[in-house]
Fold:
Amino acid sequence: MTPDARQIVFENVSKFYGEVLGVNKVNFTLKPGITSLVGPNGSGKTTLMNLMTGLIRPSRGAIYVLGLTPQQPIEFFRLVGYCTQFDSFPTGTTGYDFIYWPLRLHGFAHDQAAKLTDEALQRAGMAQVARRKVAGYSKGMRQRIRLAQAIAHHPSVLVLDEPLNGLDPMARAESIALFEAIAKQGMHVIISSHILEEVDRISDRVVLMSSGYVVAEGQIREVRREVRDHPMQILVRCSNAARLAAAAFELDHVVEVKILNDGQGVLVRTRDAEQFYLLLNKIVSGGLVEVDAVAPADDDVNSIYQYLIGSDRGPA
Amino acid sequence: MPVYKRRYNPYSGTLTPQWSRFFVLTRYAFAELFKSRFFVILLILSLVPILFFAGYIFVANNKTVQLLMQVRSTGLFLVENEYFTTIMIAQTQAAFLLNCWVGPVLIAGDLTNGALLLFLSRPFSRADYVLGKLAVLGLLLSAVTWVPSLLLFGLQAGLARNGWIWSHLWMIVPIVLCSAIWILMLSLISLAVSASVKLRIVATGVIFISFFVPAGIGEMYNSIMGTYWGRLLNFTEMFRLILAKGFRQLSGNEIPVPAAWGVLILVCLLSLVILNARLKAREVVRG
Structure:
């Protein structure tokens, strides 16, 4: 297979640490945009990121990042920016040095490295404290300086391991805005996060992982449609809830209908959402019910996570 | 599917040559080292003997000063191969002490803080990393060994007459070559220790141990077995053997010089094996 120069491709990738499974038989193709890796502790998210950034090599399979493999480190690492979840700082370094010196390792001359450092510090909102030692930073500041370092060399693929951890709501909103801006420019942004609400809001697609396996991958709604074991929940806000509930019960694929406490709508669980929407169209056009709003109630990452990975294990 | 503007362009300007990147680490390490007052004092102290050696050379070549000092013996101030051997021994010992202070922190700090991950997720290999750290010790120890020794050689050549320089030109080779093997061995040992031991004081102790304990074991072996091959474990003695041979002096040692070279090269290789095992972008814990 010829690797696509705009995609990240994992071909049957497995990674074993001795007898311990890291990830197994991972196959996916990621297009530009924001992709979230979601899964419980030890599910293999960080292993996948380390594989993607060439820090570890797969036991089996092949990885292509924008057409390059980690075996071409000079070109490969120019494309990739990695923000780890670990506090990895050389002793006594300042925020400025933390970005400047790695840029020199990338091969930028002094002037260019200084310019890119200032630019990255501005984007991450760290310019004011750049000359302070990283050891004196708060957790959120450390997170932001890591992010600044990851984006400083203008990578095409940004891999962020738990980038929202430790950030206050304002900083989190700013970071998300930054990710979205970067992704809209055509970059790959790969995020692992356990803040599922935000993952849901910003992700173009998700990769759900459990015990080293990819259990689902794709756009959130597509993934939800594929989860047939769990009927879809549809919330309808309408005027005549009892009438709608009665009509819905006549359909075979509807397994549950619940009238909302305020009587102004129903929550329907159905195995065939398309058929239910057709019924709803008929009822509305017949003038029996006035519909204010229709919205799927469980096609978000949180629900998919619960259905596929289980509610007994907390996300990581 | 979102519509992307695709206006993002990665940097496409000129970059510094790949081969020179390891110097970034070296420059950074030197910047950090020179912040330490103790290091600066230690470096100056390492160079103090050079002043005395230079003074000696000056006196040896100045009859007026000798007369003022009422030196009557003509053979008292001789600057020959024995003298340069003494310079080399003194300066390589100074290099050893300097190495014990600087070496242990070079890699340990990065390992403690997980900084290897940062370095190795750049267009920067493990070999570049080791080379960058090795260059720190290489440059530093050169500054107290072969560089001042060559300057003293130049001073003597300038002050001496009767074509001294031409009859002693061969000494440049042992000055550079013996310093090089000593620096390489010291640097690799201390980097290997630094990659294995995080505490500076312990690491310094381990470097001392790595020199003195094998030497002690070697002597025990000699006593028990009634042989002299145990000396192969005395790295300092092996170096001095090479040094004596290089400066055309009789050592009276039964160990062949190629064997001494072999030992020092073996120690270097062993250190590289340890570095290879310890330096990983990600520490993999096998369960």
